Amino acid sequence: RVVAVIMVGGPTKGTRFRPLSLNVPKPLFPLAGQPMVHHPISACRRIPNLAQIYLIGFYEEREFALYVSSISNELRIPVRYLREDKPHGSAGGLYSFRDYIMEDSPSHIVLLNCDVCSSFPLPDMLEAHKKYGGMGTLLVNKVSAESANQFGELVADPDTNELLHYTEKPETFVSDLINCGVYIFTPNIFNAIEDVLKQKKDRANLRRVSSFEALQSATKALPADFVRLDQDILSPLAGKKELYTYQTLDFWEQIKTPGMSLRCSGLYLSQFRRTSPHLLASGDGKRTATIVGDVYIHPSAKVHPTSKIGPNVSISANARVGAGARLINCIILDDVEIMENAVVIHSIVGWKSSIGKWSRVQAIHLGEGDHNAKLGITILGEAVDVEDEVVVVNSIVLPNKTLNVSVQEEIIL
Ligand code: GDD
Questions:
Q1: 19-33, 170-184, 364-378: least confident range
Q2: 178 lines ligand 1 (CB under 6 A)
Q3: Three-class SS of residue 15?
Q4: For residue 365, which of 49, 122, 216, 341 sits 20 to 30 Å off, Cα-Cα?
Q5: Residue 184: its H or E element
Q6: Per-residue pLDDT tens over the stretch 7-24
Q7: Bridge partners of 308?
């Protein structure tokens, strides 16, 4: 049997995701019309003999209650949210719920970061892992040498795929092969974490007796029960025939910023084109809008037949799109109203916002593939009113603002 664990983190980690993380935990922010965490969860469903899916984080329980109960019913696999009282780090969080995870006596544990966008080739990875015979297998990916330092950089044996060397976000370049935050472990991972915990406690005790000054610096350091999977486990175990790599040739991205969420929404929409085309708007029939490329429209949204939508557009529940509106590369959240002849391009429009007639909300892309640049996108927080004929370009607008004049490259607090 296999148990899957998705690390969802907690509220303090989502600051780069503001203002979108102000009213929904980042793991529940919709990509291609589905909560971010829904995509790894549905990938887990393809694992043979999957017993349980756990989400581990330090958000309030009530924030996930509704989602986990509805997804459990939908997939007919038990999905549970386990809340840490405080952050224990990516390995420490896993370890603190080892009793729950081991309840089903799994032979393998699939561990996923929630903020990555991937096709999650889990069944193939599991097969490869069994052949390697190690304690763990990491999904890895080649990225550009300039961007590699945002990730764990690693070296693998080209013949055996063994992980030979691992450095988390190094200052000097090690390799363009990086850690995707997707793992398969045997239950021995808990022994490895336990060893690190013991070493940390011993070291802390040693410092305590050696001098008062050292004690002070020790208390400022990370707490003794905080264990990071990358620095504390992967780095020391590299080159010991315990860890192996499996390279994905399919899409993979990390979702740390709103700009990346828009890009990843598009990646998941194009995956739907291959795996579940019924989820995409078809645009045939006289009474539907003109659809270009991959578009998701929630069944409760009202989209005028003279509007033109796409590519890469997701429209959430109860949104209304007026006559003659044009939407390209954007995420429209619940209860948004877009009035006649308005244009939305390269933008995320927050819950309950409204965009007036003949208004434009857009970004101008400064460089190719520059989705991470803060202002390569326009973001309206919750309940922002853009009045008629107002133009908003490359700006971030915090919740509850009314814009009655045009703005460009501004952050409106
Ligand atoms: N439950 C819980 N508790 N989850 C946590 C905690 C914690 O204390 N700390 C982090 N997480 C979750 C985050 O929500 C995220 O899903 C995952 O664990 C990893 O987060 P970080 O430890 O902040 O690392 P990162 O995202 O900057 O980088 C990691 O992922 C990259 C791939 O996206 C590293 O493993 C990199 O090497 C890797 O390239």
A1: 364-378
A2: yes
A3: helix
A4: 341
A5: strand 177-185
A6: 999 987 657 888 888 879
A7: 290, 326
